[in-house]
Amino acid sequence: MNALPSALAATDTACKISLYDSEVATVIAASEMYNPLSIAEDREYMGAILQCGQGYYYTAAPGVAGQDQITVRVSVPAGSHIVAFWHTHGAAALDRQYFSEVDTALALSWNKPFYLADYTGALKVFAPGDKLMSLRKASRLGLPARNGFSRGRLVHDHKGRLIRVATSIKQRFFANNKHREDDLPHNIEFAHM
């Protein structure tokens, strides 16, 4: 990502219907929907996770194909508030398994967790307070020598199972997805990578 979202604006529209019962269930749904498209199109997708009452929903916007660039505007209806951000990183590339300096800056400036679904199907989270890579560590991994990269933490469900998301359209629609709606996690724990 080369640009932070351009604006987040409150609106006076009514709260949307909430479809999910937790932040992470909502992230999984967004990632399952958009990660396969992101990889196929080599395009980032990004959005916010909003809470309205006891329920959650997500927003989504596409980036520029073939570039690590996205600008997002999120309307926050009355009665809702942003609890997290989520995104994808497109097709396979070394640096796309990590949170970029722009990703971590967004999480830190908004003081909200930022989730990443990558081309391997890993679902990760970076939250304020999580460790950033040093310039030396980034360089050793083959990343640009810039401050702010992070590995993030892998997301596990309440039973300790690693959460994996779809990486292809076929997998999204035809694979037996172990994270069915009735099995979505309610108590999530994060493991350091």
How does this model look, in words?
The chain has helices at about 25-40, 100-110, 135-140, 170-175, and strands spanning about 5-10, 45-50, 55-60, 60, 75, 80-90, 115, 125, 155, 190. The chain is of the alpha+beta class and about 190 residues long. It has one domain (about 5-190). Strands 2, 3, 4, 6, 7, 8, 9 and 10 form an eight-stranded mixed β-sheet that branches. The longest helix has 19 residues, at about 25-40. It starts with 6 loop residues before the first strand and ends with a strand. The model is unreliable at about 1-15 and about 175-193 (pLDDT under 50).
Key phrases:
single chain; 193 residues; alpha+beta; eight-stranded mixed beta sheet; two-stranded parallel ribbon; 10 strands; globular; disordered N terminus; disordered C terminus
Q: What is the element string, with H for helices and E for strands?
A: EHEEEEEHEEHEHE
For the record, the count of structural domains works out to 1
Annotation, overall tally of beta strands: 10
Coarse morphology = globular
Largest sheet entry: 8 strands, mixed
Strand content: 15-25%
Number of helices: 4
Concise overview:
This protein is α+β, with helices and mostly antiparallel strands and 193 residues long. It is built from four helices and ten strands, in the order E-H-E-E-E-E-E-H-E-E-H-E-H-E. It has one domain (7-192).
